[in-house]
TrEMBL record, chains A, B:
<keyword id="KW-0862">Zinc</keyword>
<dbReference type="GO" id="GO:0046872">
    <property type="term" value="F:metal ion binding"/>
</dbReference>
<feature type="binding site">
    <location>
        <position position="262"/>
    </location>
    <ligand>
        <name>Zn(2+)</name>
    </ligand>
</feature>
<comment type="similarity">
    <text>Belongs to the peptidase M32 family.</text>
</comment>
<keyword id="KW-0378">Hydrolase</keyword>
<feature type="binding site">
    <location>
        <position position="301"/>
    </location>
    <ligand>
        <name>Zn(2+)</name>
    </ligand>
</feature>
<keyword id="KW-0479">Metal-binding</keyword>
<comment type="function">
    <text>Broad specificity carboxypetidase that releases amino acids sequentially from the C-terminus, including neutral, aromatic, polar and basic residues.</text>
</comment>
<dbReference type="GO" id="GO:0004181">
    <property type="term" value="F:metallocarboxypeptidase activity"/>
</dbReference>
<feature type="binding site">
    <location>
        <position position="266"/>
    </location>
    <ligand>
        <name>Zn(2+)</name>
    </ligand>
</feature>
<keyword id="KW-0482">Metalloprotease</keyword>
<feature type="active site" description="Proton donor/acceptor">
    <location>
        <position position="263"/>
    </location>
</feature>
<dbReference type="GO" id="GO:0006508">
    <property type="term" value="P:proteolysis"/>
</dbReference>
<dbReference type="Pfam" id="PF02074">
    <property type="entry name" value="Peptidase_M32"/>
</dbReference>
<keyword id="KW-0121">Carboxypeptidase</keyword>
<keyword id="KW-0645">Protease</keyword>
<protein>
    <recommendedName>
        <fullName>Metal-dependent carboxypeptidase</fullName>
        <ecNumber>3.4.17.19</ecNumber>
    </recommendedName>
</protein>
Length: 509, 509
């Protein structure tokens, strides 16, 4: 049967992409320094091999037959969806000329060193010429991929299929309206005490506690492991092997703890996928050429944010686990109580650096990037004017002055490899997290009761049932519609932030 | 130019095979238990992808052109050799029907569990049916590959190209003649004291000292790393990333130390390959589908044995480093001196288990296996008669009685995956090691002087120059001919063992 042949071949594509992920994990955790040059070549070969197999004549032949095999089945039938996704991915890749892909890859290879040097010297002009080329290639890429309304839509497709610039514009306007007053009021309010978070927390004890908490909320170590890296991440090699990393600062304990909870949230998404989908297109992003079960980068972020923020930064969590953290660091937190700890880890202050920002101000860093990226791509902003535009937006949104480009426009690694169109995922994830969490609480009051008793299984099961197990079977909005009765809706997120921060900072409603 | 195209494609084959090696390393060192099933599929896909690319129409087309490109060049020209090796590998793989390969792979998958159960229960009859199938498939494989004299020659080709059963028969006869008298005499001699090797050596201190000594002899950690595993091994992902593992027994220190020196010897072979050969057929075993620069498994073993035995178990080495090992384990070896240590680590006693045997008795374990394997393949021994034949040979060679099959015919993992034809590598390695070491000493007396002063660079440079840098450019015998003026010669090895053990045990000449 052609369908079987299609699944055999797409299983091999999944294997190649998982191999690529294993090589990436190794490069970031274990590889000796000398290995980097040949490792890049190995990674490139694996991606090309996966793409070539996906777009091969034998795959297309199997696909033609498989489409007949599933004809007439229910639209939501998993196998019908698998077949449709292979078709969609082949169509996507064949729109991009090999020569354009090659130029983009080459530029990505050069860009990183220029970006690193520019950031080191806080001198945007070093990186500007490469970024100009990247914007130009991104425009070409957008034209090749195609779009209805805005070229930026085409670039976001790989990361957040279906999301449009217009949709983000209206979402962002609503977020600003809801969140800016909070930011302003907190700017004038009394900050909670947080000195105790900067005490000395031994590295090994931090790793042990972070892993303990990750397992406590449901991360399965039989199919996972925790390591340390400069930039924390989660990566999976099928649902059977899903790894996380965190980073440890001996004088800033929240970094390792919330990093691990965040990545464990990502990991549980992958670990929760239906075992029947392993190695199938429902566990493979064939458009992005990445072996992942999560349906979009934003959907993935929703799971990490939900566990990090809605669970890990909640009052109930620390009422239950403050004694645990006290005994993890004997003598260090004896003069602190659960309530003070809860307030300290939820402190909000405008900051320059995205990855160091708090739950409330984080999205402003994202809006700024999405807005600037889309203007670069549409041509209404030039690369030369980018630093000024960046600094003006930081002032407008967060009221901060950017002292130099290293702490401003050069801070993120994304553009160094020509990656444009991915920042929206973070804010979409925040919105989805609140929407899912609010629905879970309303639908099953027992989940809240359980959370209050440090029992995370009911929430995890609800999320597995509504999100994780489906893998890539449903699109993001389809998934949201089934789980919450509507598509992306910023209101639960604004309600969550308003209620939480008003209470912590004693703001007027 | 077709040659460039050939090198691009063979570079991708190398990348795929290196990716496979990285996945194997990860599976043995880092992977959580849950990952094993999907990892097997990923590994299979990578090997098939490498084989398919090697035997693809585009590769053959490039090869046809490349043969014209290098026509008329010197026979030893590296590029001419690359082209010839691609041709040889394609010819080899095309002789093996896909259906036969599939049956062999499937049987390998089943065999391991049956073997493990049989060994667990010390019951050969559990494994016998699978082994019968494996012998039958090996015979089919030998017929497909082709041979002049003996079907076992065809099976050894993957591991030790050019070696014949007839050649081994005569080598083994000479080894027995030279070594059996030593084994007999030592059986009646006084054993050196070795109690102190079984004292308590902390695990972390062992790892630290093992790594220190590996680096001391020349293992480059910028392009390597050391981990612990149940079975020690070396594996490379190009010369830029060559990793080793060792195992640690807190009450038997030589295991970690000599394990690390052994694997460092393998590693230095890979690290010493000519940088110009990276990703080329001269750094890829295209017949065995394994990304390695060493020219045969025996040649590889020669480097590990040379550093482990001729250097690491030499008197000079411990005259220089005994103080180092004393300070690595404070207080543990205070009542021991360098001479006593040297004698203890060179103690020889017949034993049941190959991997636990000493320098002198090791080869008898190998001869036994090679002889039984070749008889199984030629049909002069049946699988049912194998345990009796094993036990008889153990009695004849080493004078030991095998108490059960777990400590006899079932001890090695090799047959569980249908791997027949690889044991000869160990003895060939021992012979080559002595031949190369004796030549180095005779040719450059300064190397001995340097070794006496704990300077390992001159020996390493000689080996790099004569062996490592050539990668797979020359065949094993060609390499030996250039380095020592003759092909495989057992006399230096017999001289080495006779002189060393006569001296330690005070035997009559």
């Amino acid at each position: 049967m052609s369908l079987n042949q299609l699944l055999t071949l797409s299983g091999q594509v999944n294997d190649l992409l998982n191999a690529s992920s294993i090589l990436s994990w190794d490069a970031r955790t274990m590889m000796p320094k000398g290995g980097s040059e040949t490792r890049s070549k190995q990674l490139a070969t694996l991606t090309v091999a996966a793409r070539d197999l996906l777009c091969s004549d034998q795959m297309k032949h199997a696909l033609d037959g498989a489409e007949k095999d599933v004809a007439g089945r229910d639209d939501e039938d998993p196998q019908a969806r698998m077949v449709a996704q292979v078709r969609e991915a082949i169509t996507y890749h064949e729109r991009i000329p090999a020569e354009l892909l090659r130029r983009k890859t080459e530029l990505g290879g050069i860009g990183h060193d220029l970006w690193a040097e520019a950031r080191e010297k806080a001198d945007f002009s070093i990186f500007a010429p490469a970024l100009k080329d990247m914007v130009a290639i991104s425009k070409e890429m957008a034209e090749a991929i195609g779009y209805e309304d805005h070229p930026y839509d085409a670039l976001m497709y790989r990361f957040e299929p279906g999301t449009t610039t217009a949709e983000l514009k209206s979402l962002f306007a609503r977020l600003r309206e809801g969140m800016l007053p909070l930011v302003r009021q907190i700017g004038e309010a009394q900050q909670p005490e947080a000195e105790f978070l900067y005490r000395e927390f031994p590295v090994e004890a931090q790793m042990e506690f972070a892993l303990k908490m990750a397992q406590r909320i449901g991360y399965d170590l039989h199919r996972g492991r925790l390591d340390t890296t400069v930039h924390p991440f989660e990566i999976s090699f099928t649902r059977n092997d899903v790894r996380i990393t965190t980073r440890v600062n001996p004088r800033w304990m929240p970094m390792s703890l919330f990093g691990a909870l965040h990545e464990a949230g990502h990991a549980m998404y992958e670990q929760g996928a239906d075992p029947a989908y392993v190695r199938t297109p429902l566990a493979t992003d064939l458009v992005g050429l990445y072996a992942v079960s999560g349906v979009s980068f934003g959907a993935h972020e929703s799971q990490s944010r939900l566990w990090e923020n809605h669970v890990g930064r909640s009052r109930a969590f620390w009422q239950n686990h403050f004694a645990d953290i006290q005994s993890a660091y004997p003598g260090t937190l004896d003069d602190v109580d659960a309530e003070a700890f809860y307030r300290a880890i939820n402190r909000s202050r405008p900051s320059l650096i995205r990855v160091e920002s708090d739950e409330l101000t984080y999205d402003f860093h994202i809006m700024l990037r999405v807005e600037l990226e889309s203007r670069l791509v549409e041509g209404s902003l030039s690369v030369d004017d980018l630093p000024d535009a960046w600094n003006a937006a930081m002032k407008e949104y967060l009221g901060v002055d950017v002292p130099d480009d290293a702490q401003g426009v050069l801070q993120d690694v994304h553009w160094s490899s020509g990656q444009i169109g991915t920042f929206c995922n973070y804010t979409i994830g925040n919105i989805m997290a609140a929407q899912l969490f609010e629905t879970a609480m309303a639908e099953q009051p027992g989940i809240r009761t359980a959370l209050d008793q440090a029992d995370y299984a009911p929430l995890r099961e609800w999320l597995d049932d509504k999100v994780a197990r489906h893998g890539r079977r449903f699109g993001r909005d389809e998934l949201l519609q089934k789980a919450t009765g509507r598509t992306l809706d910023p209101e639960p997120y604004i309600r969550h932030l308003t209620s939480k921060y008003s209470e912590i900072y004693g703001l007027a409603a």
